[in-house]
Amino acid sequence: MNEYAAYLGIDWADTKHDLCLLDATSGQKTHLVIKHTPEAIAEYVTSLRVRYPGRQIAVGLEQSRGPLLFALLQYDFLVLFPINPTTLARYREAFSPSRAKDDPSDAEYAAELLQQHRDRLKAWRPDDEQTRTLRYLVEHRRRLIGDRTRISNRLTSLLKCYFPQVLSWFPDIRTELVCDFLLRWPTLTEVQPVKRATLLKFFREHHSMRSDTLEKRVTAIKQSLPLTTDRAVINSSVLLSKALAAQMKTTIAAISQFDREIQKLCAAHPDFPLFQSLPGAGQVFASRLLAVMGSDRGRWTTADELACLSGIAPVMERSGKSVWIRWRYFCPKFMRQCFHEFAAESVRHSFWARAYYEQQLVRGKKHQAAARALAYKWIRIIWKCWLTRTPYDEVKYLEALRKKGSSLLAFAAAKAKTS
After folding, report:
1. Do 157 and 102 lie in a common domain?
2. Do the domain assignments include residue 95?
3. pLDDT tens digits, the chain, 419 residues: what are they?
4. Cα–Cα dist 155/339, whole Å
5. Is residue 275 in a domain?
6. Same-domain status, 212 and 244
7. For every residue of 246-273, which 3-state class applies, written as one string?
């Protein structure tokens, strides 16, 4: 008896989905189009349960996340196989050299690919609810950080054009203090007539308490000269600066709310102390690494498999006598980002990580390449700690390097003598 009763290929879209059901016993193919509504999806899946009672159905679709996958997760007899869009495209081109493309045929190719090569595809097994919630939260938070950076860059560029003093009065404009300041006094001519006591009260209400800093700031406000008096520039810039300040304030508040929710989940997660033991991980990177690693210890059989999936491991290409190495283009971007950014941060907190990073720079690599090479080393360590549920210990790792006679320690010692 076949492992699966049928193979279901899905070519998904926003409003409708093209389906191809391939019966494992008879080989019969059935094509169908359903609307992307909860009712239509539930009706079709229920008909499959009635048609194949007590049997599992393999489902191939070009996504590892999204509304359709979320809708199918609630049905335990469906085994989901996310298919890389590039894989399906190459499979389609093998049988359609003209590169003709149609949604029903793509669904059929997905079903055939799943039937013929499912040994090369991995079924998607979701983590527990706690870990999945954390994964979505940290991903959303990272996007908000990107939004904050984008708004900050636009606001900085705008202030340079009509009110550059703000950038020197405040070391960081990504704060609620600066947002409220611009919303209340968006121009130099509006803030200069304000009484000294009013300004000091405003700053103290925003937790700016250092007397010397406040005195310098207030004095600078009173003595500054406007960059421009062109009302066309000033009036238009004021409207945009207020809009950007309001967006920045909302984004800052949202990030703080996400941080609180993430902290609650991490405090209750049994694996969090393991990732918190990593040097420089802190709350942010520990939660992100926990989310991307997940709770299923059988997901990756080797550290190399994890390194390849994350996009950290390089790709080697050979053709005749030519061999070249490049970085991996197609991978989960958030996962690669987590390992890469953590590796860059660990340079400030780990002795061997700093030595390895500097060694890569000496060899001629730029910062990004050096950080990526360090991330490749960290992945092997993190995978082993995660697999064995063992917190990281810097002293033990350095002792292991010493016993192996690692050249890294010799490099660090030589650099210490010359510095």
Report:
1. no
2. yes
3. 468 999 999 988 888 899 999 999 898 999 999 998 999 999 999 999 999 999 999 999 887 667 788 888 889 899 999 888 888 888 888 887 777 777 788 899 999 999 998 888 888 888 888 999 999 999 999 999 999 999 999 999 999 999 999 999 999 999 999 999 999 999 999 999 999 999 999 999 999 999 999 999 999 999 999 999 999 999 999 999 999 999 999 999 999 999 999 999 999 999 999 999 999 999 999 999 999 999 988 888 899 999 998 999 888 888 887 888 887 777 888 999 999 999 999 999 999 999 999 999 999 999 999 999 999 999 999 999 999 999 999 999 999 999 998 888 888 888 877 76
4. 30
5. no
6. yes
7. HHHHHHHHHHHHHHHHHHHHHHHCCCHH
Q: Which string of b and e fits 31-70 if b means at least 16 CB within 10 Å?
A: eeebeeeeeebeebbeebeeebeebebbbbbbeeeeebbe
> Is this prediction's pTM over 0.85?
no
Neighbours of 230 (CB within 10 A): 12
Residue 402, domain extent: 281-418
Residue 272 within a domain: no
What total of structural domains would you count in the chain?
3
Could you tell me if 368 and 291 lie in one domain? yes
Residue 397 lies in a domain: yes
